[in-house]
Amino acid sequence: MPKAVDNFLKILVIFLIGALGGILASRYLINFTAIQEPVAVSQPKYVLEQKNVYVQESVALEDAIKKVKDSLFLVESSDGKGNKTFGSGLVLTSDGLGITLAGLTPQGYQFKFYLDGGAPSFQVLNRDLNKNLALLKFEKNNLETVGFFDLEKLDLGKRIFLLGRIESDDSSPAFFVDEGIVSNFTSNNIKTNIRGDKNYLGAPVFDVEGNVLGLSYLDEEGIVNIIPISQIKSLAGL
User: Fold this and answer.
1) Least confident of 1-10, 71-80, 213-222
2) What separation in angstroms does the CA of 136 have from each of 5, 34, 97, 184?
3) Residue 98: which of 129, 65, 125, 116 has the closest Cα?
4) Burial of 166 (0-12, 13-18, 19+ CB in 10 A)
5) Is 214 helix (H, G, I), strand (E, B) or coil?
């Protein structure tokens, strides 16, 4: 066989072997790499963990609301001319001590306080205009109470929720809830990032475990501020 033809055949065989090897590599090695390469394993896991946190927080909030809602009462103030205002208050002791805002119980007005399915008789024991607090005594025992938050453990950004009672068309109690964080605080005042309206007045504010931080009032910008539980305990002698 001529040498030129022999060289040509050798080159042709090498070329065919190389082409066949390339086809096999592209078909099997690439697929193998795709199978072995981890594809977005961590991202779905992260999302699932995040959803789990949200569910836990939601359940904790729902449990806390159920835990504290029976300790709230509705305040109805009337000027005797058909003008009424409403707000909320909190039972402090099972034997009938309660607290609300002095601004919801102005002198010369007529009041009703709805709690535990009725409107019990009451006395206004003390009205501190400087602290904007009114201490009440209901003629009713075995009332539901809540725990008091330890203000020494208060931090910026602490998660809180506000629970208030509102006027209802029937005899069943009606509530509303809002949540946020502590944005600033001093020994005399706690500021939140919650924006409210007149229905928020006197509504207790709790941590996610259901311990009360204090009562709500609104600043000039409509932001919810809290009268600390320390001032409430001092007025009530607790």
Assistant:
1) 1-10
2) 115, 73, 6, 29
3) 125
4) middle
5) strand
Query: Of 120, 63, 57, which is closest to residue 89 (Cα–Cα)?
Result: 120
Q: What is the pLDDT of residues 150-197, one digit of tens each?
A: 999 999 999 999 999 988 765 567 899 999 999 999 999 999 999 999
State how far the Cα of 202 lies from the Cα of 87, in Å rounded to an integer: 6
Distances (CA, A) of 71 to 5, 33, 91, 136: 104, 63, 5, 14
- Picking from 78, 83, 128, 88, the residue whose alpha carbon sits closest to that of residue 217 is 88
pLDDT at 116: 76
Give the three-state DSSP class for 65: helix
DSSP per residue, 15-27: HHHHHHHHHHIII
Angle at 144 between CA 183 and CA 234, to 5 degrees: 55
Give residues with Cβ within 8 angstroms of 104, minimum separation 6: 75, 77, 85, 87, 89, 134, 201, 202
Q: What is the C-alpha separation between 61 and 213, in angstroms, rounded?
A: 15
Neighbours of 77 (CB within 10 A): 19
CA-based nearest residue to 215, from 142, 123, 156, 131? 131
